[in-house]
């Protein structure tokens, strides 16, 4: 069964535990600036929204890479950057319509979410369930439930 990250901004408090867990998992330091997931803070509304690579089926980043540094992990389905192959040309960052691949100045390479090999640290660290790792076939279940509630999915009187 393929799984994917499911992000629910309604549950996000902006605690940044996901960013801390990600940076520690990938770099061994608690440094949100190095995280592959970001929590956007919309000051006007007070909303916090976690955001990272959605592992697109038709991955523009993968197809755009001229040196084939981005491959698909057969176990997780994640699009993974091979740092030894990446030449830092940034073509993948341009091709990604969501802006979830980032150039890392210190390494001269790019980074993106790789699902932590199937156990995403961000999902494990999230105290509110705003980030979960669920069956990829059911990532829309919350929207389905909300729509059903609007249509009268309440107990009858």
UniProtKB/TrEMBL annotation:
One Pfam match: Fer4_11
SUPFAM superfamilies, alphabetized: 4Fe-4S ferredoxins
Keywords, comma-separated and alphabetical: 4Fe-4S, Electron transport, Iron, Iron-sulfur, Metal-binding, Transport
Keyword 4Fe-4S in record: yes
Entry keyword Translocase: no
InterPro entries given in the database record: 4Fe4S_Fe-S-bd, 4Fe4S_Fe_S_CS, RnfB_subfamily
UniProt GO MF annotations: 4 iron, 4 sulfur cluster binding; metal ion binding
Stretches assigned to the 4Fe-4S ferredoxin-type domain: 3-32, 44-75, 77-106, 111-136
PANTHER family reported for this sequence: DIMETHYLSULFOXIDE REDUCTASE CHAIN B (PTHR42859:SF10), OXIDOREDUCTASE (PTHR42859)
Protein name: 4Fe-4S ferredoxin
Species of the source: Sphaerotilus natans subsp. natans DSM 6575
């Amino acid at each position: 069964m393929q799984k994917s990250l499911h992000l629910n901004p309604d549950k996000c408090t902006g605690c940044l535990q996901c960013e801390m867990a990600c940076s520690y998992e990938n770099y061994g330091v608690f440094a949100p600036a190095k995280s592959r997931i970001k929590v956007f803070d919309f000051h006007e509304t007070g909303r916090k929204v976690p955001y990272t690579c959605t592992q697109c089926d038709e991955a523009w980043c993968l197809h755009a890479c001229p040196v084939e540094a981005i491959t698909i992990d057969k176990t997780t389905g994640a699009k993974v950057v091979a740092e030894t192959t990446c030449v830092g040309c940034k073509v993948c960052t341009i091709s990604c319509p969501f802006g979830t691949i980032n150039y890392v100045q210190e390494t001269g390479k790019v980074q993106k979410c790789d699902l932590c090999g199937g156990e995403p640290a961000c999902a494990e660290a999230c105290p509110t369930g705003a980030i979960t790792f669920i069956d990829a076939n059911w990532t829309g279940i919350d929207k389905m439930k909300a729509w059903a509630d609007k249509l009268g999915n309440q107990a009858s009187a």
